[in-house]
Specification:
4 helices; 8-stranded antiparallel beta sheet
Length: 189
């Protein structure tokens, strides 16, 4: 394929596709129970790997700026519970949901948090819940409610510096919901 066949990315377009893909990957890995060995702080488990890749792909300044930062990146992951210090105001657990995995990576300029939960709810109800949550936090919903047939919604704020993606995979009556947030460190509440 030549470069003339490739459409240029609009601002925020890369995140719209990267976050749903990472969210679906995190959900799939959480369901299969895979985990890796902690080789580095950013790759301490399978739930941390998608979060780390989302942070790298969503950093507007790239890795050169992140490497020049004075803050030391920290990454934590947990299975079947929320990691210590998880930003429950930023990513609230749905009523009746069970935590499958969570991760938190504190870095600058962008920090990443993710939650995978299961709940007995329809994908449309999950999207409605999180739309209300994120619009209440001054995020703006991007157009569309699915990516390649997977129910998904992306929200942005701070001129696109912060984004949250909600993706749902339904199996029977159970929805596996993955919420991934790439936000400024001050937003981790």
């Amino acid at each position: 394929m030549t470069s003339s066949n490739i459409a240029p990315l609009r601002p925020g377009r890369r995140l719209r596709w990267a976050l749903p893909a990472g969210a679906v990957l995190a959900a799939a890995m959480a369901l299969t129970g895979c985990s890796g060995s902690p080789a580095t702080p950013a790759a301490s488990s399978s739930a941390g790997a998608p979060a780390a890749s989302m942070a790298a792909s969503s950093s507007p300044a790239g890795s050169a700026t992140a490497g020049a930062s004075s803050a030391t990146p920290t990454a934590e992951t947990a299975t079947k519970e929320l990691v210590a210090g998880f930003p429950v105001k930023l990513i609230p657990l749905m009523k009746g949901a069970e935590v499958q995995a969570s991760s938190l990576q504190r870095t600058t300029p962008i920090s990443v948090a993710s939650l995978t939960e299961t709940v007995t709810a329809k994908p449309a109800d999950v999207l409605a819940y999180y739309t209300k949550v994120y619009e209440g936090q001054k995020f703006t919903a991007l157009p569309g409610n699915s990516v390649d047939g997977t129910p998904s919604k992306t929200f942005v704020r701070a001129s696109g510096q912060e984004s949250v993606n909600v993706a749902i995979v339904q199996t029977g009556t159970t929805s596996t919901v993955t919420v991934g947030a790439s936000v400024l460190p001050a937003s981790l509440k």
